[in-house]
Write a structure and sequence with these properties.
Blueprint: H1 6-24, H2 31-53, H3 57-86, H4 101-112, H5 114-117, E1 124-127, E2 134-137, H6 141-167, H7 170-194, H8 202-223, H9 231-236, E3 246-248, E4 254-257, H10 259-265
Helix pairs in contact: 1-2, 1-8, 2-3, 2-8, 3-4, 3-6, 6-7, 7-8
């Protein structure tokens, strides 16, 4: 009966392994936040596995609370990762993900104290079926607060990355695209389940996607050096040079050009 857990175990193993690998390379820009994100998603997934295995209501509620450690931290860390990436392109630091940390902590405390006030889960029922029993609880205004928090941060993350992709030069589109795909794999699955477009529930599908999404982000982070190529040099030098500059590939095809070259040729890259 535990065969159903295999996809979750694989996803958790990949996610935690990537977190450890990123932490060992934490001096690389972006690696520390990615490691934290991976560990948060690992907690989320392991919490869900443990909740399924747990045999009684109290144990399932405990592991459900553990899940929300990851589920509260993950949107915040996605935002932090996107902001850190975006700020390699822009000189001023406009906003920090840490500004949202008190909100995340307050929300987590609210969830963990639900047994005393009942404002998050409402009426809780333990449904017994094979292979695992599961929790059912009414969605209260408190649960809606978490939903607004999580999806607001993810929408903000997506807007930042899409805007960066649109405005990135050809040289940096592949970097931004890799990060965007890695983020959207998980959150597209989340939106699909939240809108009930498929029969699988949100908590059943999303943890499975963490492994694949993080593999793609890690590929961009370590293979394409998402944070190590400093776009500021391009934005503030390449774009403002009075000289005409072309970027050619190995076949001498023009891949990019600065505004001076565009004006001279009357062409866009």
């Amino acid at each position: 009966m535990y065969i159903i857990l295999i996809p979750y175990i694989i996803s958790a193993a990949i996610t935690i392994w990537l977190g450890v690998a990123a932490w060992r390379r934490r001096l690389i820009p972006g690696a520390q936040l990615f490691a934290s994100l991976s560990f948060a998603e690992g907690i989320w997934t392991l919490g869900y596995i443990s909740q399924l295995i747990a045999g009684n209501l109290d144990a399932k509620l405990f592991w459900n609370n553990v899940q929300f450690i990851g589920a509260t931290a993950t949107p915040l860390l996605y935002l932090g990762f996107a902001l850190e990436f975006d700020q390699t392109f822009t000189r001023p630091k406009r906003i920090s993900w840490k500004h949202f940390a008190p909100l995340a902590l307050g929300l987590l405390i609210f969830i963990w104290t639900d047994t005393w006030h009942g404002l998050f889960r409402g009426q809780i029922t333990l449904v017994t079926q094979e292979p695992f029993s599961f929790l059912v609880y009414t969605e209260t205004p408190g649960f809606a607060l978490y939903t607004i928090y999580a999806y607001s941060l993810i929408v903000l993350t997506t807007i930042i990355l899409v805007a960066r992709y649109i405005h990135a030069s050809q040289l940096f589109k592949i970097q931004t695209g890799i990060l965007l795909v890695g983020v959207l794999i998980t959150w597209t699955a989340s939106v699909i389940t939240a809108l009930h477009l498929i029969t699988i529930e949100l908590h059943e599908l999303v943890p499975i996607t963490f492994g694949l999404g993080n593999l793609i982000i890690a590929w961009g982070l370590f293979r394409y050096k998402l944070f190590e190529v400093i776009p500021i040099a391009r934005e503030y030098l390449f774009e403002h040079l009075a000289d005409c500059v072309f970027v050619l590939d190995h076949q001498l095809v023009v891949e990019d050009m600065n505004p001076t070259a565009q004006r001279i040729l009357g062409r866009k890259p």
